[in-house]
Amino acid sequence: MNPLISKLGWAALSVTGAACLGVVALSRGESISALWIVLAALSVYLIAYRFYARFIATRVMELDARRITPAWARNDGLDYVPTNRNILFGHHFAAIAGAGPLVGPVLAAQMGYLPGMLWILAGVVFAGAVQDFMVLFISTRRDGRSLGDLIKSELGEVPGVIALFGAFMIMVIILAVLALIVVKALAHSPWGFFTVAATIPIAILMGLYMRYVRPGRIGEVSIAGFVLLMLAIVAGGWVAADPVWGPLLTFDGKQLTWMLIGYGFVASVLPVWLLLAPRDYLSTFLKIGTIVGLALGILIVAPQLEMPAVTKFIDGSGPVWSGNLFPFLFITIACGAVSGFHALISSGTTPKLLDRETDAPLIGYGGMLMESFVAIMALVAASVIDPGVYFAMNSPAALIGKTAQEAATVISQWGFVVTPEMLTQTAADVGETSIISRAGGAPTLAVGMAHILHQVIGGQAMMAFWYHFAILFEALFILTAVDAGTRAGRFMLQDLMGTFVPSFKRTEALVPNLVATGLCVAAWGYFLYQGVVDPLGGINTLWPLFGVANQMLAAVALVLATVVLVKMKKQRYMWVTVLPTVWLLACTLTAGWQKVFSENPKIGFLAHAAKFSAAAENGEVLAPAKSIEQMQQVIFNDYVDAALASLFVLVVLSITFFGIRKVMQALRDDRPSVRESHHGLHAEAGRA
Amino acid sequence: MGEYLGQAARLMVGLPDYDTYVQHMRMKHPDRAPMTYEEFFRERQEARFGGASGKCC
After folding, report:
1. Is A113 exposed, middle or buried, given 0-12, 13-18 or 19+ CB atoms closer than 10 A?
2. B57 → closest Cβ in A99, A272, A348
3. Which of A151, A180, A291, A373 registers the highest number of CB atoms within 10 A of its CB?
4. Are the C-beta atoms of A232 and A468 separated by less than 8 Å?
5. Distance CA A224, CA A197 (A)
6. What HEC string does A275-316 produce?
7. Rounded distance, CA A271 to CA B46, Å?
8. Does B10 fall in a domain?
């Protein structure tokens, strides 16, 4: 293209993006269209991709299209296959996208859409996408080795083990939080429960068909499974309305917790082809389809944002989660801005499929931009519903009471005018008995999605269908993650325990398998149960722990990237990874410190424990406890949470310490000390 | 286009292209018989979930 036209085009895009951001940031008092947010985000992504990702690719990494990648050097047609970059983009995106970017922005909306949106955009451009891209690059230059391996070889044996242990604890918290989201969404909802439970027999039918009838026919079996899923949603409505089945399938949080724990154990020891793999197909395709559908829905409907740009809760007094904007907003929105978990994917299957090094910006940086866009859509979905309804759905019963009347009174006093009729009507519209105190993100997102999608297909009559479709879509891939995560956690645990008891390394042996699976399920089940009985909704306690853990893993990955850059003698570009590392350390260490030591019992675990101890000594019983024994349990839980938060802080501090030591060493070397694998150059660039 | 989307969809759930695999085996390992599609499918299914590689949150 003519360079002048290209320059003018980018200039025009920059002006458009700036104008959209201006509209979003400066409009006060009147509601604006969600399209402004979407357009601002897309402009930011395009500019960041065109300029910043290219800068990192050419100046910092010096990618070479001719350099032979592991996919070519080790090509086996299975794990290592040179793959077309667009196809690989789909693979990578499907692997990184999960519930995280959907839930965090919904919870963050309590401060208004503006703070969340700005962090999502700034975070992804300077931290999240950089991390994914850097790890993909580092792993590709080292034969596609995993994050744990890379830390071991670049930082040392001890930090390697610390990181592996940290990753296991992070996995536990992630599984507990994800399971909590499902429990919150399905409690007292026979429709939701029936639909989600139906996915189990549907998946098993698909698994049997693919095993014995027509092996490996993913396409036809997925279409059949999808049709059955839609029928399950419709049938769920009948079941919920039935006078016998409705009450029979209505469960409270505790009952659902025990079911999920049992399910998690059984599902993760069954053969993968029977349940896990077929449901993985359904959840992956449904996830991608729904994300595309939601994007189209927002473009077609162009909904108005009802949530104010900034609410009064930026002072930290919000009902959904406690704590100030700094650091807690940056912890609440983890995935979508920056997610340490992606470092595991970027050093997993993706680097083994990379055709050319120069495809890495699209896959690594671009894939994360796409995930960030999912977060923006979730923020939009949470902001298009009435703020009064939003706060009724996301505030704990301890604050707003249990009836529509009480909730409407309290929330109206906060300045978000809402009537009890609006709350009961919204519940009736989506086919539920109540929408009050359904924290956890999924139900709010589902109401928002139903609000948008029913205007495209089906009208008012389809509102309940779309609500339960959205619940199903989230629950489906959360259950897949719980199942796959328990399995992965079990392997990690067996690996860790094998260091001390060698016989535990045998992953195919039954006893170590059952013991490790049981320990893994018990670990996340403990936190899940604790979250479910928490009167402040559990999300309050667990989501910040998850956010801190996830951001800390990101900091660890960025420390690794910094060490590698310095070893490459690229220290003049160190700021590319050092700046986001410093920011993440500032957020996570402050948040970790406050979660442990804050004097406010709403934030600090120790202060909360002290409050309960003082009450227990006076013989008082504070909610949620109903007896002195339960008081002791609450206090014990607080100590466990405080210990866990401290543990995350110690993990990240020690990795940072080892990282700084390696950086100092590498700075003293006068030539590059980096160890990459070399497979030579192709005669010409680019093929697959 | 359909072929392309099908390949993308299959790789999303961890199944690389079978024809590419067969071609690779013919060119690089003519002495060994490539797996049938069914064997290939099962091998990949086990590989996707058999290790500590989780999916994301």
Report:
1. buried
2. A99
3. A180
4. no
5. 17
6. CHHHHHHHHHHHHHHHHHHHHHHHHHHCCECCCCCCCHHHHC
7. 9
8. yes
Query: Which of A116-129 are b and which e, b meaning 16 or more Cβ less than 10 Å from the residue's Cβ?
Result: bbbbbbebbbbbbb
pLDDT of residue A379: 97
Q: What is the mean pLDDT of residues A70-83?
A: 95
d(CA A149, CA A146): 5
pLDDT of residue B57: 52
Q: What is the 3-state secondary structure (H, E, C) of A88-120?
A: HHHHHHHHHCCCHHHHHHHHHHHHCHHHHHHHH
Q: Is residue B9 part of a domain?
A: yes
A349 close contact with B: CB closer than 8 A: yes
Distance CA A622, CA A626 (A): 7
Residue A541, Cβ density class (10 Å: 0-12 exposed, 13-18 middle, ≥19 buried)? buried
Q: Which amino acid is located at A70 in the chain?
A: P
Report A:557-586 residues touching B (Cβ under 8 A): none
In this predicted structure, what is the pLDDT of residue B51? 62
B28 touches chain A (CB under 8 A): yes
Contact A163, A151 (CB under 8 A): yes
| Whether A326 contacts A338, CB under 8 Å | no
Highest mean pLDDT among A286-295, A487-496, B41-50: A286-295
**What would the two tokens of residue A339 be?**
């997610």
State how many domains chain B has: 1
* Contact pairs from chain A to chain B, CB under 8 Å: 133
Residue A681's DSSP bridge partners are A67
Phi–psi pair at A304, nearest 5 degrees: -85, 145
The token pair at A497 is: 């325990």
Q: Which domain holds residue B43?
A: 2-48
Flag whether B44 is in a domain: yes
**pLDDT tens readout for residues A415-445:** 999 999 999 999 999 999 999 998 888 999 9
Q: Which residue of A77, A83, A495 is in closest CB contact with B52? A: A495
pLDDT-derived band at A679 (thresholds 50, 70, 90) equals: very high
The verdict on A273 touching B (C-beta cutoff 8 Å) is yes
Q: What is the pLDDT of residue A688?
A: 53
Instruction: Identify whether the C-beta of residue A484 lies closer than 8 Å to the C-beta of residue A461.
Output: no
Q: Give A484's contacts in chain B (Cβ within 8 Å).
A: 49, 54-55
pTM over 0.90: yes
Residue A685 has a pLDDT of 55
Q: Scan residues 219-238 of A and list those with Cβ closer than 8 Å to B.
A: 219
Q: Is residue B43 within 8 angstroms of chain A, CB to CB?
A: yes
**Interface touch B57/A344, C-beta < 8 Å:** no
Binary contact (B48, A277; C-beta < 8 A):
yes
- Report whether A128 contacts A338 (CB < 8 A): yes
Write out the two tokens for A316. 């930290």
**A548 phi-psi bin (left φ>0, alpha ψ -120 to 50, beta other):** alpha
Domains of chain A as residue ranges with CATH: 3-188+251-495+504-668 (1.20.1740.10)
Q: Which two tokens stand for residue A385?
A: 């519903």
**Interface residue A284 vs chain B (CB under 8 A):** yes
The reply to whether A379 touches chain B by the CB within 8 Å rule is: no
- Do the domain assignments include residue B40? yes
Mutation pick from A72, A78, A362 vs chain B, by most beta carbons of B within 10 Å, is A78
Per residue in A658-667, pLDDT (tens digit) is 999 999 999 9
Q: Are A99 and A330 in contact (CB under 8 A)?
A: no
